[in-house]
Amino acid sequence: MTIEIDTWFPTVIGKASCPFFMNIKNKYIKYLESKDISSSGFCYYSIHKDDKLKKLNTWIAKQVNELAIKFNFPDKYEAKESWFIDCKKLNAQPWHVHNGFIFSVIFYLEGIPDDSGTKFRSPYNIDMKNPYNSSPDKDHKADMFNKYTYPSCTYPCIPGKLLIFRSFVEHCTDLKITDNRRIVLIYNFDKI
């Protein structure tokens, strides 16, 4: 008899590629450079309220609401806060969540796939018994896990790519070690 496996409770990451990205990229980068960016690269500017970024903001909101339909969520969602990060070399984002929201979004405006990607951690990875017999020297080696047990995943920085995820999903960015520019736009969505 062969064992059957059901895969319940997935952690969903929605992905979309902006169809008009090449038409807006340079204009949006130049426009965002005029904002008050901190020395660490953070800019707490409400990009979701900016009419000059309306085309992208409208497209992102449409993608979020399409994903919400796939969840069978009955409500419509809108961006409630947003900001962007012009990531500097030797900066990182520690593991965190976006409390108080339903969906969060990362849009890669500039970067290269070989730069630090966005990591997501499974919200179900709380096994206190160490069934892998892991130790500090082999902890989290990929060959220890499979599609049912991976504790995390990483998405590369691909300009024009959108990631949508439930706001409770932990995510981070590893230490940026390249000189290449990496600009990400972040949005938090809640019910209209």
**How helix-rich are the residues, as a percent range?**
10-25%
Estimate the global geometry from the Cα principal axes.
globular
Residue windows where pLDDT falls under 50 for at least 5 positions: none
The secondary-structure class comes to: alpha+beta
Order of helices and strands: EHEHEEEEEEEE
What is the CA-based Rg, rounded? 18 Å
The total beta strand count reads 10
Short overview:
This protein is α+β, with helices and mostly antiparallel strands.
Report on this structure.
The chain has 192 residues and is of the alpha+beta class. Helices cover 16% and strands 30% of the residues. It has 2 helices and 10 strands. It has helices at residues 21-33, 54-70, and strands at residues 13-17, 42-43, 77-87, 93-96, 103-110, 118-121, 152-155, 161-166, 171-173, 182-191. A 6-stranded antiparallel sheet has the order 1-8-5-10-3-2. A 4-stranded antiparallel sheet has the order 4-9-6-7, with no helix packed on it. The N and C termini lie far apart (51 Å).
Layout: helices, strands, pairs:
Blueprint lengths: L12 E5 L3 H13 L8 E2 L10 H17 L6 E11 L5 E4 L6 E8 L7 E4 L30 E4 L5 E6 L4 E3 L8 E10 L1
Antiparallel strand pairs: 1-8, 2-3, 3-10, 4-9, 5-8, 5-10, 6-7, 6-9
Keywords:
four-stranded antiparallel beta sheet
